[in-house]
Amino acid sequence: MTSQTLPSLGILHLERGLVPGATPPKPAPGAVLHPRTFDFPVIWETVAGAWVENVVRGDPALEPAFVAAAQRLAERGAVAISSTCGFSIRHQSAVAASVTVPVVMSSLLLLPSLLRQLPRSAKIAVLTYDSTHCGEDLLGLEDPNERARVVIGGIEGGKFWHDELKNPPPPTDVAAIETDVMACIQRLRSAHPKISTVLFECAAFPTVAAYVRRTAKLPVYDITDLCRITMASTNWTAG
Known about the structure:
This protein is of the alpha/beta class and 239 residues long. The chain has helices at 52-57, 63-75, 92-98, 111-117, 144-147, 159-164, 174-191, 209-216, 223-232; strands at residues 8-13, 42-46, 78-83, 123-128, 150-154, 195-200, 220-221. α7 runs parallel beside α8 (209-216).
């Protein structure tokens, strides 16, 4: 089986303000749309009207556009579907109901499982693009004891946060993400010494995952890990 015929992961991509026909900026290494991030093909569809600002704050009017883009991906042959924004987990149920392939809209889906992998005394730090909009409804935790083991930190106000709100946003500034994410982790660990794992909500953060693992010396999970798990469950083989 050649790389051209391997089943593809479908990605729901947010609007980037591109002129029709224009070539999008090359994704940073580690990003879900970078050609070397995965060992399987990736295809993507833009979710009409879905910008960082309205996806993060949770605009329910976007749900039909998410569903329509997911259906286009399934029609194109995607065997699993994910997204480029963890806050799109708000549309997880609707998208999953609209197609017949696995749907993993956000790395936050990993949170209940990760909590069960750790001692009850351990905590998980959820690193998000904007903690002011990362509410209880996104975490998928009903047990208050589990919720107490999760600490949330965001990079709102930082350079990358401001860049992503521009129309169009500039190319991803990986150095800015490194600076803001590490500063957030340091703040959280000072307040919560029992943090033993980091979960990245933001789909841009995988670009700094290796750096954070080396620097913070903590396990780090992100959307690319969930995509690999999901694709490994489908009926395809590389080579």
